[in-house]
Amino acid sequence: MNLLPYDWVAIGYLTLTGVLILIFHKNVARWYFHLIARVLCIIGIVLLTLTDASTPFPLPFLRDWYPLSTIALFYLEIKKLTQMVFQHYFDETVIRWEKRVFKGMPSLELSDRFPSVILSETLHLCYFSYYVIAVFLAAWLYFSGRIGPFQETVFAETLTFNLSLLFYPFLPVTGPRYLFEKIQGKLSRGFFFRLTHLVVSSGSSKGTAFPSSHVSLSVIVLLYALRYDSTAFLILLPMCIGLTVGTVYGRFHYAIDALVGAVLGGIVFGITMAIF
User: What is the value of pTM for the model shown?
Assistant: First the structure.
């Protein structure tokens, strides 16, 4: 059995949230299913660590890439867990922080101040590019044969994302898109505006606004691109900047969510630099 750092991240997250589910099980519907799923997932991870060079495809590939799939899986599950500690949301608290730090609410003001269709479409495209950002650098490194940097990048990504998830049961925040009116007028007729809001409406998990996992993940990916590949960094830089601004401009997150998400990504990068 050869447990890699990202295996420990997945097992640690499953174990910690499993303990929380046990403690607060009265607030989790069908809590025992979540525990059974965790046991099965941990067994599956351990079995994957038994693969080696002689193991037939696709098991070695799955062993390398399963951690990034947990980003989607854990995110979809967390909406069932955001209310297990507190049965209300903390938007009022976060809005007070927002107003104190930014002297206003950028999440409601940016689109009114800059009502450009071109800007809106560009920022919504960048926000949508999150799904590309999450795998782009990992794939770039993996298929160029740089397995060590690939494993380190995947570790940093999953650690950053899972730390974001662990915030949500203790500080569930819905974000501005649940509390305030969606952007109206000409901006709302843009293709990427409609596509992004359609995807977010069908797949978002309520209570996962603070900190912004979109921003924290994009920051850690960008920092690792800077560390390992300047070409990938130059490709990702405008996407990550646009995503960060787009989370606020599109009213998906409060600006304070994006700020704390960026800080979290920077902290994890510092931690991983000390480890590796």
Answer: 0.94
